[in-house]
Specification:
α4 packs antiparallel against α8. The protein is globular and about 55 Å long. It starts with a helix and ends with a helix. With 261 residues, the protein is mainly α. The protein has one domain.
Length: 261
């Protein structure tokens, strides 16, 4: 019942979450000549680099490789920026936490949601590329919000866990920077799962939810097909479990934040 009451309180502060999301989006492109256009230009630039490396230099045989790689880049950028941005959200707002009462979850939640909004804006670049390469879309596109919700839930669970842990162990952010690089290469962003050893590919789907999430995005946006229902359900359940675990861990430690900050 205490957890339910706390969630109701968090919902009551939804206006604060909205304001923090708006503040983060404005601050991200402040004093930038191109403004929010960077959220379109940056992934496209990375797509060009990877396309040159893997199709010109390494002769990749993946059809419509720019579309294939851009889907992976956008999904990964959402995950990496949301998690890494949220890690220091409590420590970085120590003054606010110490002076004003509000549910502390608001801080990592707002970081994750602002990156989700940035991802949605960046989809403009993706759909433009889909049009250029004449990729056929189907009714499965309606599952795109479900896949995005699954990813946001998963990233939010990690964000809550790591942001709370960082209050007590400041080395978490440094360690996660290295782990994120390793995680990037262990996720099928610039290669296909079917090109891997089958046993390893199956293990990756089980142990790495981001592999499953990116594959679901590609099913809908690249292949024009439907992700397996059991596959998508398992990924969603895993993400929910990560969120529940992250929330309980955060809620348990939140009462001691004042002592550590």
């Amino acid at each position: 019942m205490g957890a339910v009451a706390h969630l109701n309180e968090l919902f009551a502060y939804r206006e604060l979450v909205r304001n923090l999301v708006a503040r983060d989006l404005k601050a991200r492109y402040r004093n930038s000549v191109l403004g929010f256009v960077w959220c379109l230009f940056n992934p496209l630039l990375m797509t060009v680099v990877y396309t040159v490396v893997f199709t010109v230099l390494m002769r990749s045989t993946i059809p419509n490789f720019p579309v294939f790689i851009l889907i992976g880049i956008l999904a990964w950028n959402l995950h990496a920026t949301a998690v890494m941005g949220a890690i220091g959200s409590i420590v970085g707002n120590a003054g606010l936490v110490m002076k004003v009462y509000f549910p502390r979850e608001v801080l990592p939640v707002s970081v994750v949601l602002s990156n989700a909004v940035n991802f949605v804006l960046a989809l403009v670049a993706l759909f433009a590329l889909l049009f250029v390469y004449r990729v056929n879309l189907s009714a499965s596109l309606l599952l795109l919000p479900v896949i995005l919700l699954t990813q946001v839930i998963f990233s939010l669970g990690l964000a809550l866990f790591l942001s709370a842990l960082t209050v007590f162990f400041r080395d978490v952010e440094i360690i996660m920077e290295t782990l994120m690089v390793a995680w990037f290469f262990l996720t099928p962003i610039f290669y296909r799962m079917e090109d891997l050893v089958p046993a390893y590919a199956r293990l990756m789907y089980i142990a790495n939810p981001m592999a499953s999430i990116i594959s679901a995005y590609r099913d809908v946006l690249y292949l024009g097909g439907m992700p397996g229902f059991d596959f998508l359900t398992r990924t969603f359940v895993t993400s929910v479990l990560v969120l529940v675990g992250g929330y309980l861990f955060f809620h348990h430690l939140a009462r001691r934040f004042g002592e550590e900050l």
